[in-house]
Design goal:
Layout (H helix, E strand, L loop, with lengths): L2 H15 L11 H7 L3 E9 L2 H13 L2 E3 L4 E3 L6 E9 L3
Antiparallel strand pairs: 1-4, 2-4, 3-4
């Protein structure tokens, strides 16, 4: 690969990532949690089986908790672990 092509390739990738640093980006879950004064609680539920996590999340939904983001799957200790972040919002 010649130097010109390598230079263009590096700069092309930088310009594609530039939108991540812009001020007009969409808010992420973390931004929402940190900027919302209505959030009064934050938990991370953990289970060794997906059905157990579903049961835990459903129990918390009935109590007014709201999922924040998606499910995280972590491999290790010879089997997967499932995690779900949830938030509790103040009553209006």
């Amino acid at each position: 690969m010649d130097r010109t092509r390598t230079y263009r390739h590096k700069h092309r990738n930088r310009s594609r990532l530039g939108h991540l640093r812009s001020k007009n980006r969409k808010f992420t879950t973390v931004d929402r949690i940190q900027s919302s004064p209505r959030i009064t609680g934050y938990k991370i539920l953990r289970a060794g089986e997906i059905k157990d996590l579903q049961r835990k999340v459903n129990e918390h939904l009935k109590k007014g908790w709201v999922p924040a983001g998606g499910v995280s799957v972590c491999g290790g200790y010879a089997h997967a672990h499932f995690h779900q972040a949830i938030t509790k919002e103040a009553s209006q």
